[in-house]
Amino acid sequence: SQKIEQNSEALNIQEGKTATLTCNYTNYSPAYLQWYRQDPGRGPVFLLLIRENEKEKRKERLKVTFDTTLKQSLFHITASQPADSATYLCALGLYNQGGKLIFGQGTELSVKP
Amino acid sequence: DAGVIQSPRHEVTEMGQEVTLRCKPISGHNSLFWYRQTMMRGLELLIYFNNNVPIDDSGMPEDRFSAKMPNASFSTLKIQPSEPRDSAVYFCASSLGQGVDEQYFGPGTRLTVT
Fold first, then answer.
1. Is B17 strand, coil or helix?
2. Which of B45, B50, B102 lies nearest to residue A34, judging by beta carbons?
3. Separation CA A107–CA B3 (nearest Å)
4. Cα B35 vs. chain centroid, distance in angstroms?
């Protein structure tokens, strides 16, 4: 069956450390992958896009990798801050699907001062 | 730009009643998506439109759910009759094109069916 799995348990880290979130998928061949941030009571907000032919993308303190052999994406936040505390969602985009995204369950990140 | 606008923000209704959720996408965006989010099932795509045309409604739970997009600036999601298991947060999102473009989400409508 097709599955997208993110760290099911909340991730607690100390301010200043690097947070690493995992997104694994099974029986999908995504053309691209997106990461979103969601704060309580709000809609998801887009962070980064990475395509299947790209290994790594960076944006300020954020980095995402995409390994189509391992069927995995890693999302890193360096020099984490309490303001980074939120739920992070990965989403797969498939070929010729008109922009349709399939979302993982999300990982809750808590950064302690 | 005001972003994606959804109304109402909260809706409480009794089982069996009709519920209509509304969405105004970002001007100029060609794709519109309706999602449902619950703790158990996460964020699920219900239906999406490209250029006002429904493309994929395979996520619509059953015939009680229907969605329309009569023009580029307005969409509705209707549940008739509503049931307690429909309680969830419903999000509308829009994107510029029909491919890899990022999606912009509205604030959501929290629906409670008693």
1. coil
2. B102
3. 25
4. 5
